[in-house]
């Protein structure tokens, strides 16, 4: 890995604007999932380091929370520009530790930077209200203020964008942040910290705790009385645990958890666009996103035609090391991910499903899996109930609109859903009946900095992106002025 900007490869804990060793000098390895080779070793944060970071954030909050919005905006804009200026290096770093194709990684860097740019402007629009009064001797108003120190816990599948989606609005609101990135992908987080340092972010406003001690560190972040807010992206199981722990100090929470996204192809869909959209939402990042289409529901009358077109498109996907320019499917993150896919496929086959394409590990390496299509799927199979998180398309058949909606909603999750139809009446009906926080219609890529991202039901609560995203890091203070 040859970076033009050597400073972006940082391996220390980031506290008080310094990269340091852990208090016990322990480290852990970061490996390239494409070939298993060691990338580097990184400082392994301890409980003592965590408490130091929280104290630093608490101290910095007193000043940062009163810094005027123009100053916050100026720093965020500079951070954004530095990310863009270094996007090629950041993408290479991301691909090396996470595995996604370089072109996808570059897309993530641009996407992640867009949140920094958005909140550099949005911090200037966090308005309060003047409330009409019923008593002439009183005046009523509200103001928005930063909530305090924020703990952010981010996943490995989008190691840049999941950070900026949390950190940028928190900093813009006037909060300070202690971030624990995923242990598989700490380098992207540390590179962002280096650029934030160069942008002029004051010490203590952002701390980064790379660690394999995620249970102990997570417990501290969710129970420490100085932390006012926890933002987590990850599994529903872990989210529930963090919520239980946070209850001890009544922290404000944002939880972006698991998904089970349906992608419905109606008989009035424009099929070529439906195929393109379904491919985009299913196979992006080798199927390792929380909003990937987990179940593709196809109306019976168009099923043969759709399956033929879809199969032809999937066959064109190129599996390989993400560094190679022609690769479109990179490796899965670890062996556990491979084992999960195998178990889900075995269960499906035992219950009557049929593999029509792929179904095996790919010759590119032990963490690569063939783009796969499995048909004759039913709701009794495990892959209909939990995230596949891999390059496997499970195809279901339905006959009526009502049946499709019932099948789509038959899950405890409610993050994202997609459907394809050219009928405007159906578009309105179905979008209102689907029990999901995000709906994509005739489109497979739906997330953007300007729009709110978040789920319902077991997929969590809270929003990231848009003006809702900065509200997650603020309190609304009501002020009553009397005896006028």
From TrEMBL:
GO terms for molecular function: succinate-semialdehyde dehydrogenase (NAD+) activity. Residues 20-478 form the Aldehyde dehydrogenase domain. It holds the Pfam family Aldedh. GO terms for biological process: aldehyde metabolic process; gamma-aminobutyric acid catabolic process. PROSITE patterns: ALDEHYDE_DEHYDR_CYS, ALDEHYDE_DEHYDR_GLU. The active site is at 256, 290. Keywords: Oxidoreductase. Belongs to the aldehyde dehydrogenase family. PANTHER family: SUCCINATE-SEMIALDEHYDE DEHYDROGENASE, MITOCHONDRIAL (PTHR43353). This is Aldehyde dehydrogenase.
